[in-house]
């Protein structure tokens, strides 16, 4: 593997994301030789840490992720980390980061290459981007910026942030992270769809009745009530993860496996996305909040949540396109907190067939994304001792060995940033389309809010409110996972 020379600055170097995800992922890339002798990482945050203290944190973070590491390698890795305390609004601090980056560039022969990673509270993204530009932090080699979600909270704020970033970075150097695009079973969608004639040839409205995407979590909002109040399930999970999954399911076949060809096909599909009217939102979208129990809080009692809040912790709805292989096929989705179990899955529901044996059961293709990787097909066969048709599962589940080979999503995505591959990142024009859709639903919900006293409350430990079973276009449709 290539040794990439680069100075990487992580804004939010003392934060949870850096600790849990970025440092362990960077160590794995170091072990693979992708970054080796010619890199340094500058961690920045408000706290007055020293280089030494950051290095100890990095070592702890790697240990917490994996106990069996080579300690000498780890020490050597950590020696590439430097700390710069930083107030995002203070321009002098950007000068300090710039000087440190230039020093490190000479020391490590980093060839003027820079990666800037925004891993702090999103309200600072715009300010940081602006100062990267006006304080001239851009290096003389490649310059890339990685932006965590949420990228804006509606189309207008996302566009504003995009303009601030554009001042220093062209679209082909902006890496908008969606960690779902680093997941094994999501990266597997296109190969599965396109490399098997059985699947490829039935991927159309002629055979597919509907598609169902469920991202269910058993946890509640935990300590993130403050953030969640500004977001809700629609912005937190649908705007990014669910829409990316749906795009991969419904896009046409790219002409090549390049980032350009894949994004072009995605965009072709998204340009045909039907934006729902307020009436459609009433019919086909549901929002709700988890209720309390005798011993646990409901959403409205969670810390930092307004007791009269109308922020949804569950959202369900429907997306349709006028183009692509699934043109006019309803794609239903639902996501929520405090549901029965952690389960991310996709169900492709095939149409019923009338045949010699009468009305056969519908068959499904199911992809389980989390907590384990699994694919299963249902097929029909004869009943053994009586007339009629029965349904059976053909299942493929990853073995422990296969699971052990799957890298963490962040490791994959960071690797792609280092090598300059944007395939699994969100392009601005995709994001703009996603926001257009979300804004339409949010606007309809906002206007309903005036007449709604309280959102629907759903019981914890189930699959959401019963109203989510009423969004289907026809009475013969239902959630496959129930
Ligand atoms: C994040 C959301 O993007 O995804 C969280 O902000 C959510 O609210 C998380 O819990 C779920 O990710 P995963 O990988 O655990 O399914």
Description:
The chain is 37% helix and 20% strand. With 482 residues, it is an alpha/beta fold. The strands form 3 sheets. A 9-stranded mixed sheet has the order 16-15-14-11-7-10-9-8-17. Strands 3-2-1-4-5-6 form a 6-stranded parallel sheet. The structure holds 6-O-phosphono-beta-D-glucopyranose (BG6). 6-O-phosphono-beta-D-glucopyranose (BG6) binds next to loops. Pfam families: G6PD_C, G6PD_N.
Query: Can you count the beta strands?
Result: 17
Characterize the biggest β-sheet. Answer: 9 strands, mixed
How much is the average pLDDT?
96
Query: Which runs of at least 5 residues are low in confidence (pLDDT < 50)?
Result: none
Bound molecules: 6-O-phosphono-beta-D-glucopyranose
How many helical stretches? Answer: 16
Shape: globular
Alpha-carbon distance between the termini? Answer: 45 Å
Provide the structure class. Answer: alpha/beta
Name the beta content range. Answer: 15-25%
Q: Using only CA atoms, what is the Rg?
A: 24 Å
Oligomeric state, counting identical vs distinct chains: single chain
- Spatial order of the strands forming the largest sheet: 16-15-14-11-7-10-9-8-17
Helix content: 25-40%
Brief digest:
The chain has 16 helices and 17 strands. It has helices at residues 16-31, 51-65, 71-78, 91-108, 125-134, 155-166, 184-187, 189-194, 197-202, 225-229, 233-250, 259-270, 278-284, 400-405, 409-419, 428-449; strands at 6-11, 39-45, 81-85, 114-118, 143-147, 174-176, 208-216, 286-290, 314-319, 331-336, 343-350, 354-355, 358-359, 364-370, 374-382, 389-397, 456-458.
């Amino acid at each position: 593997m290539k040794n990439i020379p680069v100075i990487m600055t992580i804004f939010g170097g003392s934060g949870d994301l850096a600790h849990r995800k970025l440092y362990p992922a960077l160590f794995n890339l170091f072990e693979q030789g992708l970054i080796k002798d010619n890199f340094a990482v500058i961690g920045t945050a408000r706290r007055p840490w020293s280089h030494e203290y950051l290095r100890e944190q990095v070592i702890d973070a790697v240990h917490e992720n994996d106990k069996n590491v080579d300690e000498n390698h780890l020490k050597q890795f950590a020696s590439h980390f430097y700390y710069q305390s930083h107030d995002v609004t203070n321009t002098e601090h950007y000068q300090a980061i710039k000087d440190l980056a230039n020093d490190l560039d000479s020391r490590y022969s980093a060839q003027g290459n820079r990666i800037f990673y925004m891993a702090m509270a999103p309200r600072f993204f715009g300010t940081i981007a602006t100062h990267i530009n006006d304080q001239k932090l851009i290096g003389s080699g490649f310059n890339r910026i990685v932006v965590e979600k949420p990228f804006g909270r509606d189309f207008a704020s996302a566009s504003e942030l995009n303009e601030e970033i554009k001042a220093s970075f062209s679209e082909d150097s902006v890496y908008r992270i969606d960690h779902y695009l680093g997941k094994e079973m999501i990266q597997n969608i296109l190969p599965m769809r396109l490399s098997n004639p059985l699947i490829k040839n039935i991927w159309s409205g002629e055979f597919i009745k509907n598609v169902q995407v469920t991202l269910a979590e058993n946890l509640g909002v935990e300590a993130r009530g403050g953030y969640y109040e500004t977001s809700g399930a629609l912005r937190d999970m649908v705007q990014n993860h669910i829409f990316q999954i749906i795009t991969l399911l419904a896009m046409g076949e790219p002409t090549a496996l390049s980032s350009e060809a894949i994004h072009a096909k995605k965009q072709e599909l998204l340009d045909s996305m039907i934006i729902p009217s307020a009436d459609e939102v009433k019919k086909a979208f549901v929002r709700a909040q988890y209720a309390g129990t005798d011993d646990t809080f409901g959403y409205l009692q969670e810390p930092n949540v307004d007791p009269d809040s109308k922020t949804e912790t569950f959202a369900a709805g429907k997306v349709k396109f006028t183009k692509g292989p699934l043109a006019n096929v309803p794609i239903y989705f639902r996501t929520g907190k405090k549901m029965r179990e952690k389960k991310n899955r996709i169900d492709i529901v095939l149409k019923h067939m009338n045949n010699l044996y009468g009305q056969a059961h519908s068959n499904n293709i199911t992809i389980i994304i989390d907590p384990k990787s699994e694919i299963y097909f249902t097929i029909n066969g004869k009943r053994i001792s009586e007339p009629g048709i029965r349904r059976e599962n053909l299942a493929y589940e990853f073995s422990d060995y296969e699971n052990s080979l799957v890298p963490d999503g962040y490791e994959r995505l960071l690797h792609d940033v280092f090598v300059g591959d944007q395939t699994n990142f969100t392009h601005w024009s995709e994001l703009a389309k996603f926001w257009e859709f979300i804004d339409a639903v949010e606007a309809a919900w906002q206007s309903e809010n005036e007449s709604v006293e309280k959102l629907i409350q759903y019981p914890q430990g189930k699959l959401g409110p019963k109203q989510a079973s009423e969004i289907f276009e026809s009475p013969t449709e239902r959630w496959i996972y129930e």
